[in-house]
Write a structure and sequence with these properties.
The chain is an alpha/beta fold. The chain contains 11 helices and 12 strands.
């Protein structure tokens, strides 16, 4: 039986140097790559031209239209059985693709993601898979923690990150493409919730290792990042959550995230994002599968709490569980 074909979709916005590193690591993959599609969001530093010189098919968007629109444009032209979404500020171990493709051999596995380490501190987790709580806020499991056995066990997951993951191409025919209203941030959580609503599961493969520089385009805790996340948290609630059932966790979870933004001098960006989200709240309402959502977020909270207990509580989650579940100890 022949190995499945894989297309690579890379959303690009400047950072030519990082794109070159990614392309180098893609060239060293032990699993063959059928095609590389680089979707350029209006780069001004020659990143698109570098991708073309290295053999990638480049789709030019003309301006920065966000992660979701760029990735969707790439997905629409791919013809492989599997599609890997990889941020341009990622580097991959040579067996990264091989390991994730192998994990997708069972037909009931729809996506796979591996362990993503910080490119600047390679003993620390940048991220793994995502979990979402009743408050409409997500945690990329392990982010910022030292790599350890807690993040080295393969397991089924409900949500894959959009940083470096592999998907069955026909998944997007089942659940739809990324929601372009999100632009960037939490669009992968929205997709994961839609997958969970249809019972489509994935797998976490810790042996598939990637390295992420993180926030290479906008910068860590930039005003634009905070605005988008604050707004998109509201979009998640509008699309998928029962406010009547979860109003208190939503208030606590998103309010605490606002305190984090305020501590970093981004209170104004947080409020701007929330107002934008609330103005569009009704227009974002979707067909909700409340039973599936309830299972997803309640299981997600149990996992978040257990992992936090084993590895040490972040301030955010300690306070969240104190106010929503009677304590975090």
């Amino acid at each position: 039986m022949s190995a499945p074909t894989v297309s690579i979709v890379i959303p690009v916005w400047n950072r030519r140097d990082m794109l070159l590193r990614l392309l180098d690591t893609l060239a060293r993959q032990t699993h063959p790559v059928a095609e590389i599609v680089a979707v350029d969001n209006g780069s001004s530093d020659g990143a698109a031209e570098v991708a073309e010189q290295r053999g990638a098919r480049v789709l030019r968007m003309g301006s920065n239209l966000g992660f979701s629109r760029a990735v969707n444009t790439g997905l629409e032209v791919c013809r492989s059985e599997l599609v890997a979404l990889v941020n341009s500020d990622v580097e991959l171990e040579p067996d990264w693709l091989d390991r994730l493709v192998a994990a997708l051999e069972p037909r009931d596995v729809w996506f796979a993601t591996g362990k993503i380490l910080s490119a600047s501190q390679r003993d620390r987790i940048d991220g793994t898979y995502d979990l979402v709580c009743r408050g409409g806020c997500a945690w990329r499991v392990g982010q910022g923690r030292l790599d350890s056995a807690d993040f080295s066990q393969a397991r089924p997951i409900s949500m894959a990150n959009g940083t470096a993951s592999v998907f069955r191409a026909d998944l997007f025919q089942r659940v739809g493409l990324f929601d372009t209203a999100f632009e960037s941030y939490l669009e992968d959580v929205d997709l994961g919730i839609r997958c969970a609503a249809q019972g489509l599961k994935g797998v976490y493969v810790p042996e598939a290792v990637a390295y992420h520089w993180g926030s290479a385009s906008l910068g860590g805790w930039s005003p634009e990042m905070v605005r988008l996340i604050a707004r998109n948290q509201v979009f998640l609630v509008s699309k998928h959550f029962s406010v009547r059932c979860y109003w208190w966790p939503i208030l606590v979870g998103q309010g605490l995230w606002g305190l984090l933004a305020l501590r970093r001098g981004r209170g104004g960006a947080f409020l701007k994002g929330k107002f934008e989200g609330l103005r569009r709240f009704r227009s974002m309402r979707g067909v909700q599968n409340l039973d599936a959502l309830s299972r997803t977020v309640e299981q997600g909270e149990r996992e978040i709490r257990e992992i936090q207990r084993r590895t040490g509580f972040d301030w955010y989650w300690r306070v969240y569980f104190l106010f929503t579940s009677g304590g975090a100890d």
